[in-house]
């Protein structure tokens, strides 16, 4: 009675995602060590707090790398859909660490608004230029990434680039005008922007975890399109969700005429759904006046 269909169009992008995340991880970890030394050398609390923040980033990147690798595994008896959703765990942990890091940055920056500290501005300028280059390279590497995990990681690194731009601008102003207050002001502004982005990313993660319909996916649009197929009388009990923000799964009940060629009908329905980014579909067929026998079936 039911038909199954799926294809594997995203395996390449997932492997690519793993490479991107591993590169970002090693870049971040190496740079964190340089930052700690540089922060002590320049007596800059901003750079030291950024180093701690980057240490958190490295941890998250490591987790994201692990979960992205895990999500490439095939299905088994325990995880019958495979491990794609494991990358969501990485994106979730990433976002949480980003929130904690941002709160820490605010607790560091706000007191400095009241009592600005004098730091080695020249050393900060050198370190900031280096920071922009290193993190900028990592962002560029991840920019083409499409998975929510890669997006979460890119937000981390984008935050770091913006953080270093703030440090650079602040250090230049401190060097020439002794305006130490500029540094914490920029830090607060950037952290607010990052938190706004994290909110959007978390919304996407929870939409996937709670099995909401994929973004830009209109169920009301599906029914009329499938009804245009010859022999389809009605479409109901449509359920669509995403495994990881990319791989979409769907189940649908189609009411068809009694003399319908079922194999041809399933092929026609699948063909229509492929254009809508549905990778895996299960089709249940019913005849007119047949009770579908499932709870709330006809209401959906």
Automatic annotation (TrEMBL):
InterPro entries documented for this protein: Cation_efflux, Cation_efflux_CTD, Cation_efflux_CTD_sf, Cation_efflux_TM, Cation_efflux_TMD_sf, CDF/SLC30A
SUPFAM superfamilies xref list: Cation efflux protein cytoplasmic domain-like (SSF160240), Cation efflux protein transmembrane domain-like (SSF161111)
Coiled coil segments of this chain: none
Compartments, record wording: Membrane
Membrane topology qualifier: Multi-pass membrane protein
Domain Cation efflux protein cytoplasmic: 214-286
MF terms (GO), sorted A to Z: zinc ion transmembrane transporter activity
Residue span, Cation efflux protein transmembrane domain: 24-210
Superkingdom of the organism of origin: Bacteria
Annotated family: Belongs to the cation diffusion facilitator (CDF) transporter (TC 2.A.4) family. SLC30A subfamily.
Classification via NCBIfam families: CDF
Protein name according to UniProt: Cation transporter
Source organism of the structure: Arcticibacterium luteifluviistationis
Source organism phylogeny: Bacteria, Pseudomonadati, Bacteroidota, Cytophagia, Cytophagales
């Amino acid at each position: 009675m039911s038909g199954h269909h799926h294809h594997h169009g995203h395996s390449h992008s997932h492997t690519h995602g793993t490479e991107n995340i591993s590169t970002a991880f090693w870049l971040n970890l190496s740079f964190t060590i340089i930052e700690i030394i540089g922060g002590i050398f320049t007596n800059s609390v901003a750079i030291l707090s950024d180093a701690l923040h980057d240490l958190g980033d490295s941890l998250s990147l490591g987790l994201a790398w692990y979960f992205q690798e895990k999500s490439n595994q095939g299905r088994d008896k325990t995880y019958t859909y495979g491990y794609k959703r494991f990358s969501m765990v990485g994106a979730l942990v990433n976002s949480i660490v980003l929130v904690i890091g941002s709160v820490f940055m605010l607790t560091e920056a706000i007191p400095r608004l009241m009592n600005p500290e004098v730091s080695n501005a020249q050393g900060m300028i050198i370190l900031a230029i280096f920071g922009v280059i290193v993190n900028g390279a990592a962002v560029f590497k991840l920019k083409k990434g499409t998975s929510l995990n890669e997006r979460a990681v890119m937000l981390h690194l984008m935050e770091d680039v913006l953080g270093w731009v703030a440090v650079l601008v602040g250090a230049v102003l401190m060097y020439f005008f002794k305006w130490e207050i500029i540094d914490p002001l920029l830090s607060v502004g950037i952290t607010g922007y990052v938190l706004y982005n994290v909110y959007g990313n978390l919304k996407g993660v929870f939409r996937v975890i709670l099995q909401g319909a994929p973004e830009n996916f209109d169920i009301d649009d599906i029914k009329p399109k499938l009804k245009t197929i010859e022999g389809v009388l009605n479409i109901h009990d449509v359920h669509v969700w995403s495994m990881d923000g990319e791989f979409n799964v769907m189940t649908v009940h189609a009411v068809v005429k009694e003399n319908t060629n079922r194999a041809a009908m399933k092929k026609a329905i699948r063909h229509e759904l492929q254009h809508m980014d549905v990778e895996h579909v299960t089709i249940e067929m019913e005849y007119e006046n047949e009770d579908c026998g499932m709870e709330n079936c006809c209401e959906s």
